[in-house]
Amino acid sequence: MSTGHAEPSRPPAGVKRRDFLRSTAAVGAGLAVAPTLLGAEKAGPAPINVAVIGTGIQGRVLTEQARRIEGVRFKAVCDIWKDWSLRYATRQLGRLGHPANAYVDYQDMLEAEKDLQAVIVATPDWMHAEHTIACLKAGLHVYCEKEMSNDLAKAREMVLAARETGNLLQIGHQRRSNPRYLHAKHKLLDEAHLLGRVTHAFGQWNRSIEKTAPRGYPEKYPVDEATLREYGYADMFQFRNWRFYKKYGGGPIADLGSHQIDVFGWFLDARPVSLVAEGGRDYWKQYEWYDSALAIYRFTTPQGTVYAYYQTLTTTSAVGYFERFMGDQGTLQISEKASKCRVFAEGYLSTIPHPWTPWVQKGYIARDPEDKEETEEAKEPQTPLQAILAMYGKSRPPARFLLTVPVEDAPHQPHLENFFNAVRGKGELTCPAEVGYETAVQVLKVNEAIAAGSKL
After folding, report:
1. Which of 10, 134, 308, 313 could form a disulfide with 297 if both were Cys (CB 3.0 to 4.6 A apart)?
2. The pLDDT value given to residue 385
3. Is the alpha carbon torsion for 220, 225, 230, 234 positive or negative?
4. Distances (CA, A) of 365 to 237, 327, 382
């Protein structure tokens, strides 16, 4: 579980409520991506000294994947759960050859550690702004987990801080660096236009009650009450289940939905112009946020309107998580799980040779070996039943194709590599602060639409 620092003494400056379309464009229109500050590439990757703030579950995941990247050296870790998360992180990094200094308070860490270049922030959403802005102002580049913040005013302050300091801020929407997603976006959609005119999109991330039930903690190692109060938490229950409380997080739509809602706008090259949503506290009564959220976005693209439907459920794991883009010529289904990735050609395209054959020859897609490719002999009815069905105009089934880009790295590693490459001056961030802000608007507006019971 990620942890955080004390609640700010005063709320950050607010921003006036804009309509949905203007909200998504507010930052991107006026803020530039922070430039890289380090020098040119040398022989071999230059070492980068890194600290981690928040060494709970997500902090451990990011640390484990970042340490595989050549040249990354962990020098410090920080977490308020001293006897559990902080101790584990320190011991684990030490065993792996990264002796790291341990801190409970991030301000003590920034004061003491003078040779850092970058910080990974993996604390609860409500503390992202405080931790990120402090690190940026200390001259450090920051990789901040999504959601950027559970407060749009704070998210905007993060973007401004990155711009004002000139330091890099990468938001952890890791699909934007995933080779499979990049291939689908640039090769299948932008170049090949395999789907034709895209008219609809769908995404989901469902989790079983095993994964969403209240989290406990080892009773021998609680955070003491004084420390919890100092750092803004009511008790251990809320500390461990912060994602479901309005002060600390944005609920399942922020925890899970933000990944895939981010993909909607990215793949469609558009911002949503309206949103309707529904949800409620119908199962997990002990939480504050909605245990299910269902949203419909309307996008306007040069080709026409696209409706994108998203759902996140916390009572069933049915069909897992994936995104789907549907056009009049084909459908792309994509996920971090390779087994769920397919491209389907509409049956009416099934001529011989298939019109997607050139893209197979280019290596962009491959015919699914489990899909029976149509042959000349199969074009004519072979049995009386087939002849009868042909009279009724039975549609041909879609032809199935596979994506040809394997992804062997852990899901966060390419995004971390992109961040550290940008720190070294070897590329641009794939999810800079402005992009993270736009996604935060689109995600957090779902909660707002549910509460309002009206269209935004």
Report:
1. 308
2. 76
3. positive
4. 48, 17, 31
* pLDDT band per the 50, 70, 90 thresholds, residue 378: low
Rounded Cα gap, residues 342 and 268, in angstroms: 18
| pLDDT tens per residue across span 381-428 | 678 877 776 666 667 889 999 999 988 779 999 999 999 999 999 999
Residues 423-436: tens digit of each pLDDT:
999 999 999 999 99
CATH code (residue 99):
3.40.50.720
Report the C-alpha gap between 376 and 353 in whole angstroms: 10
CA-CA distance, 190 to 267, in Å (whole number)? 9
> Left, alpha or beta for 307 (phi > 0: left; psi -120 to 50: alpha)?
beta
Q: How far is CA 172 from the centre of its chain?
A: 6
Which among 429, 417, 413 has a CA at the least distance from the CA of 36? Answer: 429
5 DSSP β-pair partners:
none
With respect to residue 150, please indicate whether it lies within any of the assigned structural domains. yes
62-110: pLDDT as tens digits: 999 999 999 999 999 999 999 999 999 999 999 999 999 999 999 999 9
List the domain range (segments joined by +) for residue 140.
20-177+410-433
* pLDDT higher at 41 or 213: 213
Using alpha carbons, select from 442, 443, 439 the residue that is nearest to residue 159.
439
Alpha helices (H) in 369-432, listed in sequence order: 384-391, 413-423
Same domain, 153 and 92: yes
Instruction: Judge if 353 and 425 occupy the same domain.
Output: no
| Structural domain total, the chain | 2
Edge to edge, the sheet with strand 321-327 lists 272-280, 292-301, 304-313, 198-206, 321-327, 330-334, 342-345, 399-403, 365-367
Task: Determine what percent of the chain is predicted with pLDDT higher than 90.
Answer: 81
